[in-house]
Amino acid sequence: xxxxxxxxxxxxxxxxxxxxxxxxxxxxxxxxxxxxxxxxxxxxxxxxxxxxxxxxxxxxxxxxxxxxxxxxxxxxxxxxxxxxxxxxxxxxxxxxxxxxxxxxxxxxxxxxxxxxxxxxxxxxxxxxxxxxxxxxxxxxxxxxxxxx
Length: 148
Known about the structure:
A four-stranded parallel β-sheet has the order 1-2-3-4. The protein has helices spanning 2-8, 31-41, 52-55, 61-71, 103-112, 126-129, 133-147; strands at 12-14, 46-51, 74-79, 119-121. The protein is of the alpha/beta class. It has one domain: Divalent-metal-dependent TIM barrel enzymes (TIM Barrel, Alpha-Beta Barrel). Strand 1 (12-14), helix 2 (31-41) and strand 2 form a beta-alpha-beta unit. It is 42% helix and 12% strand. Helix 4 (61-71) packs parallel to helix 5 (103-112). It has seven helices and four strands.
């Protein structure tokens, strides 16, 4: 895929997924594993997507974010929150402030690398999808301003 991505000017980001997805979605669960793949491929079009939902628990997260920044492989930053009483593995992510992730600290680590990409709000939630979408967008905006 790399020659096609390079020709099209597309970057490919490896997104470590929470270990609860290891059985059926991904065996890359930590940023260190994604970094090792990037180092092995050594290609400017391959990097890492940091999704706090999946990596917030990683004891090496700060160091791995710093390494990704230093190596130029920090391609994306996704934010939402982890509900302590998650009701569904895929579709029960929380708005910023609904859970236990220290979003401001992690965002600070990301920004300290020089990352200037988007803070992508990525909330898969049956609960929030069922809301009036204008009200939902307003809640997202406020949660981002207050908690991220």
